[in-house]
């Protein structure tokens, strides 16, 4: 299934991530989403119009068009549109919002085409970071920073780490509109109990657990190496734990020399040590997450742990429901001794965002619509859909989630995070992200050394 989250689809149950065909976390099981990294090359003028007109730059501003990723989760956004159009705020702003659902496989090209046409949407779904960078550079986005700072509903309505995760150079261009998708260290509770193990809180503990598991002929970690994107999660967390979020932020902001930070080399060296030590077994480069291989290895006890996005729960619930309900455990990624990164920091796909086209003729109406995403009704609709909202009011609503314990763990993890680093490929955009995947694949397959990996990444353009 292709969806919008961090899965191809992209994320957990049916929410939103998105990835490009060469990229990551894509087919994540029942209700999973798709991480379709938006291919935004060729934004220009003179492209064929998409839609029926009346979007940004067209019409009188009384009907605004909102492009949305058309997966199963879109019912939450449709309900939000219906609610907003009946509200006093919409009446005061003098208009209504019309949702245009674009099939997931068509979303990226249709958005790109539409944004270069007279029929551009006034509001549109995106993944933040690199997915909107070309639009920002072309002057096509409303900078929401001052609007958010001046509006208590928007300023206080969302978890700060998630709101900031979709930023470009410290400026807000989007409002969170789907569920969170942090990367989590999952473990098999039965295996851990049988071998008297506890989830690791430090890197040394992780290595000690690895040794005990290998002695028992159990592979420490499942890894879908043939897809490459699951390997990226290891580097994301290690770089964060060793050097903090600032290391990748420098790279994301366009400084390729940031790859030369000693933190990146150290992270690559730790990865190589894990591989050489057999932490992922000997055949992980031929195992896939997308076809269910890695989840099966994990659920059947052949591997004791799995570093994966939060959608792993829904994937396991769909494929191995008994395991998901009884034996699936979860924990935060451990600290690395001597590292400066906060153990509370999170990496992954914070959420999806609504952004506003700079050409819209009714900005007040558009901003009012974005504010509805902070409402309790919107948060409850996400929870009912199996998502964990990124709103600051969600904590009191999680008791109605399909798995309240798991939902609360995710929410607390993100709520307490000083920083939430957007998945590197999403943050860098399609072109650089794909090239980076190639280098990560070489590192994990033993085709390049940690030093070679750093050198190659510094040369990415």
From TrEMBL:
Annotated source species: Streptomyces phaeolivaceus
Listed Gly residues bias regions: 8-19
UniProt name for this protein: Extracellular solute-binding protein
Top-level division of the source organism's lineage: Bacteria
PANTHER family per the UniProt record, alphabetical: ARABINOSE-BINDING PROTEIN-RELATED, BLR3389 PROTEIN
Pfam family, one: SBP_bac_1
Positions of the UniProt region annotated as Disordered: 1-23
